[in-house]
Amino acid sequence: MKCKKCNKTAIHFQPYSGAHLCGFHLIEDIERKVKHTIRQHSMVGRNDTIAVALSGGKDSSVLLYLMHKLFHQRPDITIIAISIDEGISGYRAGTLEHAKELTQKLGVEHIIANFKDEYGTTLDEIVAKGGEKGPCSYCGALRKHLLNKTARESGATRLAVGHNLDDEAQTVMMNLLRGDVERLVRMSPGCVQPGLILRSKPLRDIPEKEVALYALQKGLPVDFSECPYAYSAIRGEVRDMLNDFEVRHPGTKYSVLRSQDKLAEPLRHSFPQAVLNQCSICGEPTAGDTCQSCKLLGRKD
Ligand code: SF4
Ligand SMILES: [Zn+2]
Ligand SMILES: [Zn+2]
Predict the structure, then answer these.
(1) CATH number, position 81
(2) Quick one: which of 11, 95, 103, 137 could link to 133 by a disulfide (CB 3.0–4.6 Å)?
């Protein structure tokens, strides 16, 4: 099959657009969409220092590569990378090696923060103790906390994360299935709050498969291994359901994401953003008295 835009052999078919694309035109299409997403949601402003959360996996590696490509010639914009080492043996060391290789190749400053130094414990140790919640609940909350803190202390004004279209559509559906409209609204960035770095998701309009193809086409050093704790029954079911719908009704994932965009704006008034305080234990921003990380770790005043 030939590419829709030139005579070369296509490497990818986009069922949602009906287009067969060669490697060159797939890259061009992805970069055009990412630029549009960044503009549409004002994800980059003048004099920004953008910290890219870099795990070494395909999504965050593509995100860092793209942000560097799009902005490294802007003298007022700085791109840095932040990786979090949660302490997951047999997994994180490998992905961090890929992250280091990529940042060195691009000449991007790379900061690595780890759970052990910040919290005095690794994720493996938390799991071994048998916490009340699953590993991902601890990991997600503690990583978010540490990413925000590290980004702020590095002088970053924004934090870009590598969530792709599939991740976002799954999260929208999961929030709907749980009836959690507040979280659905919170998926869109809120307003600037003291101590909290605004997060953005420049890959939200790129299907997961295309992110992987981008990484392969560009020959990025990417780790495709999976975290040993990665198991969420409900996310797996939602992913299968959306993939099944996407095959039979191309464009479903985009429709799900657009619904979230349309719902979030008017519903924002029903769920006003809480004014954040400083956690009484660690000083990080939180809606209550004690932040989620301190609660999970059982820290006391
Ligand atoms: S799968 Fe869960 S435990 Fe593993 S890195 Fe992701 S959030 Fe952390
Ligand atoms: Zn082409
Ligand atoms: Zn705290």
Answers:
(1) 3.40.50.620
(2) 137
